């Protein structure tokens, strides 16, 4: 009989999850995943989540508006190593007429250990001018579907 897989202790209910496997190309001099790959993983899982909700890069082009990073918060908890299967999780915790706030948690599948936590504040901009603009209704409708309640401090 096989053992049941570890079920990660996610920080939020039902996050969007994208699995990745750590390859030689991710490893740096310290023999763990280089920090630059975590940033790429943030983008990959955020886009994967957006597409699953119904918002694709070509929709940004069609609407002439897109979401850009205003701020990242990155907490590296434990290293990801060669061969690790890492579950990249994200969820949306805030949405208003100009901004979207996302959280992330990366977990090693083999033992359920949290390797990374992060947060991103995105703002909506006009693609041509780069100026901050109110989100079009298409954005708010799609991203509202991914909104997850986030526990208040001390909860």
Can you describe this structure?
Strand 3 and strand 4 (99-108) form a beta hairpin. The chain has three helices and five strands, in the order βααββββα. The N and C termini lie far apart (39 Å). It has a five-stranded antiparallel sheet. The protein has 155 residues and is α+β, with helices and mostly antiparallel strands. The mean pLDDT is 93. The protein is 22% helix and 34% strand.
**Helix/sheet category:** alpha+beta
In the predicted model, the low-confidence regions spanning at least 5 consecutive residues are none
Q: Kindly state the mean pLDDT as a whole number?
A: 93
The CATH first-level class comes to: Alpha Beta
Major sheet: arrangement of strands = 1-3-4-5-2
Largest sheet: 5 strands, antiparallel
Please give the CATH architecture: Roll
- Net shape: globular
Report the count of strand segments: 5
Helix content: 10-25%
- Give the CATH superfamily: Hotdog Thioesterase
Radius of gyration, taken over Cα atoms and rounded to an integer in Å: 17 Å
CATH topology label:
Thiol Ester Dehydrase, Chain A
Tally of discrete structural domains: 1
Q: Total helix count?
A: 3
| Spatial separation of the terminal alpha carbons | 39 Å
The share of residues in extended strands comes to 25-35%
Q: What order do the SSEs take from the amino end to the carboxyl end, as H and E?
A: EHHEEEEH
């Amino acid at each position: 009989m096989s053992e049941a897989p570890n079920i990660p202790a996610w920080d939020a209910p039902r996050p969007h999850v994208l699995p990745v496997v750590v390859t030689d190309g991710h490893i740096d001099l310290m023999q763990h995943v280089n920090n630059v790959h975590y940033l790429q993983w943030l983008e990959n899982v955020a886009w994967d989540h957006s597409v699953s909700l119904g918002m694709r890069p070509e929709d940004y082009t069609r609407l002439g508006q897109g979401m850009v990073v205003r701020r990242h918060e990155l907490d590296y908890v434990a290293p990801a190593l060669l061969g690790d299967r890492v579950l990249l999780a994200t969820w949306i915790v805030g949405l208003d007429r100009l901004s979207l706030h996302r959280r992330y948690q990366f977990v090693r599948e083999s033992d359920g250990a949290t390797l990374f936590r992060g947060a991103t504040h995105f703002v909506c901009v006009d693609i041509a001018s780069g100026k901050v603009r109110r989100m079009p209704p298409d954005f708010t409708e799609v991203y509202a579907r991914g909104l997850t309640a986030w526990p208040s401090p001390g909860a």
